[in-house]
Amino acid sequence: MFYFILNRLAQALLVMAVVSAISFSLFNFVGDPVNNMVGQDATREQRIEIRQQLGLDDPILVQYQRFMLNVAQGDFGLSYRIKQPVSQLILERLPATLELVFASAVIAVFIGIVLGVFTGIRRYSWVSKIIMSVSLIGVSLPTFIIGIGLIYLFAVYLRWLPSSGRAGVIEIGGWKTSLLTVDGWRSIILPAITLSLFQLTMILRLVRAEMLEVMRSDYIKFARARGLANRAIHFGHALRNTLVPVITIIGLNIGGLIAYSVITETVFQWPGTGLMFIQAVDFVDVPIMAAYLIFVALLFVVINLIVDILYFVVDPRIRRGGS
Amino acid sequence: MAKIDKSNSRWQRFLDNDIVYSFFTTPGAIIAATITFIAITAAFAAPLIAPYNPFDPAQISLWDGKLPPAWSDGGSSAYLLGTDNQGRDMLSTILYGGRISILVGIAAVFLGMLLGVTLGVISGYFGGLTDTIIMRIADVQLTIPGILVAILINGIGRAALPLELREEFAIYVVIVAIGLTDWPQFARVARGATLVEAEKEYVQAAKLIGLPKFTIILRHILPNTLRPVLVIATIGLALAIIAEATLSFLGQGIPPTTPSLGTLIRVGNEFLFSGLWWITFFPAIALIILVFSVNLLGDWMRDALNPKLR
To answer: Where are the beta strands (DSSP E) in chain A?
Structure first.
């Protein structure tokens, strides 16, 4: 157990080392940081002064060490474009992304499980067939097309919901939330649905497949023989046994939600970290790019680590093979 | 059978091939292949069959801009699917745009395949430290979702280019970005197939008669890894087309001067609020049909080439 976790931890550290090295090298490969900071009309002396201030003339390894020390303290430097600390910019925008991810995760999990159980139990009903065909389309449609379609239908044609932005933001204890106002709810619905659709389909298909398998098992037959109500069988016995793989997938996919929030946030102009990243890439704002890369990698490494350890706890077969 | 015409027998053998048989008995595969074939032909023959050349300023008139499709009010029969804001015929821009989307997709998959299969076969054949290093890199890359990797590589590539060359080389940057995103899948599959093949007797025999490693890998192992690679390549093509469209939609991909389907959707998106739905709707439909049929083809191929499922 100890060895296994240590092994995974070492791997995670290796990944972070590689990613941070890539992030650091961004500063050197991509554009001239001095140019990015002072603009075109700075004199030669000003440039040299800034180079020295930033420590760009130091040996690479010294610079890397300084970068890593700063990063470990949460300091990613100043944004080239906005001239503010990157960590502060990310913290400002993080609530928007986290709320969006949270809302879509809730939609994906809730609707995904309900539809998955339904199509698993009523396998041959025509409603199930329609749900399955629609879900196939859901998987192969690019996220941004779903977003555009929803905007056109609900914002332009029906005029029910706002097409973009994050409205109704209020601040509670330093956390800017839009989940407590009607306007906020109206503005989060479309992006949350767009972001959730792909994950929803995955969960639906997974739950359906697991349900089909479980429903064939002996203990379900026995439960029926005992004369239990359908509801008790389906939700108390069948669903509960499908949940282990489902929880794993949901855990792994939260990272996917954050990755795809880049696209969704751009389509809906949702002021989160994803939109910030795309704008940073547009303007070659290296500190933000580097910070976002490290942030996302850290997130994925932590999620993978937790899932690995959970697997280890849940499945005794891995325990034997691993040690 | 006594006498069989040789060409006939070869044709017969072709039809008896398991994959060909599976193809002709799966209606979905035939439909998907037909649509894919039509889409690819139409895209490559765009200069011949498109009613207009959308890049020729002499053929574009701003007076004809923002015309709806021919069948709706105010539409002109000269422009079947209407025109965009600059007066370009939508049907023609979609054909030309589809050409760029497909070309970028194929080139990116080819690059990813070349890189991934090379590294995968090397990794599988030599094993040891080489194997560990290559597969670790693949693992690290696979922890981060592909689209983020593509956006990042693409962003770095663009930033590394001087401003005046950025538009001209955008298409190559996109190809490289998607290709570099794709390779781990190919490497994994090729490595797996190599591990299986390298154990077989014919490879042992080739080693015994003293063939150089290079020849064994290239002539004997490589051809036998191609079946699973082909499946990944087909599904990868659909993903690459989506990745390109996404990059272009985010404004990071193909510039509007030579638009791909994704760029067209991005441009059209700005006119959605004024009710000019067709500028974004038709490219989107074209993209969906293209991706859907390639996906379907890939699904069929996965099933047909997997002996366990037959």
So the answer is: 170-172, 175-177
A249/A246 Cα distance (integer angstroms): 5
Tell me how far apart the alpha carbons of residues B216 and B239 are, in angstroms, rounded to a whole number.
32
* Closest approach of A4 to chain B, Cα-based (Å): 17
Is residue A194 within 8 Å of A143, Cβ to Cβ?
yes
The 3-state DSSP class for residue B308 equals: helix
For an interface test with A, the pick among B140, B271, B293 (most A C-beta atoms closer than 10 Å) comes out as B140
Which of A152, A282, A297 shows the shortest C-beta gap to B277? A152
Report the residue of chain B nearest A296, measured CA to CA.
B144
Three-state DSSP class for residue B107: helix
Query: What would the two tokens of residue B209 be?
Result: 């008669």
Instruction: With residue A291 as reference, give the H or E element that holds it.
Output: helix A286-314
Assess A141–B contact: CB distance below 8 Å, yes or no. Answer: yes
Q: What are the Cα distances from residue B7, in Å, to A15, A89, A167?
A: 57, 71, 71
Helix (H, G, I), strand (E, B) or coil at B247: helix
Q: pLDDT digit of tens for each residue in chain A (323 aa)?
A: 677 778 888 888 888 888 888 888 877 766 666 666 666 666 777 777 777 776 777 777 888 888 888 888 878 777 777 778 888 888 888 888 888 999 999 999 899 989 988 888 888 888 888 888 888 777 778 888 888 888 888 888 888 888 777 777 777 776 777 777 778 788 888 899 999 988 888 888 888 888 888 888 888 888 888 888 887 787 777 777 777 777 777 777 777 788 888 899 988 988 888 899 888 888 878 888 888 888 888 888 888 788 777 777 766 665 555 43
With contact defined as beta carbons under 8 Å apart, do A180 and A187 qualify? no
Min Cα separation A270/chain B (Å): 14
CA of A152 vs chain B CAs: smallest distance (Å): 7
Provide, as residue numbers in chain A, all residues whose Cβ is less than 8 Å from the Cβ of B151. 262, 277-278, 281
Contact (CB, 8 A) for A59 and A47: no
Tell me the per-residue pLDDT of B52-110, one tens digit each, with 9 for 90 and over.
777 776 666 666 666 677 677 766 666 667 777 776 788 888 888 888 999 999 999 99
Could you give the CA distance from residue B272 to residue A205 in angstroms, rounded to a whole number? 33
Q: Phi then psi for B279, rounded to 5 degrees?
A: -65, -30
* Residue B275 CA, distance from chain mean position: 32
Cross-chain Cβ contact B265/A152 below 8 Å:
no
The DSSP letter of residue B62 is G
Six token digits for residue A269 = 């102009």
pTM, two decimals, is 0.83
Residue owning tokens 């989307």:
B101
DSSP per-residue string spanning B133-180: HHHHHHHHHHHS-HHHHHHHHHHHHHHHS-HHHHHHHHHHHHHHHHHH
A-chain residues within 8 Å CB-CB of B145? 255-256, 259-260
Nearest CA in chain A to B288: A141
**Is residue A76 a contact partner of residue A85, using CB atoms and an 8 Å limit?**
yes
Residues in A closer than 8 angstroms to B295, CB to CB, are: 140
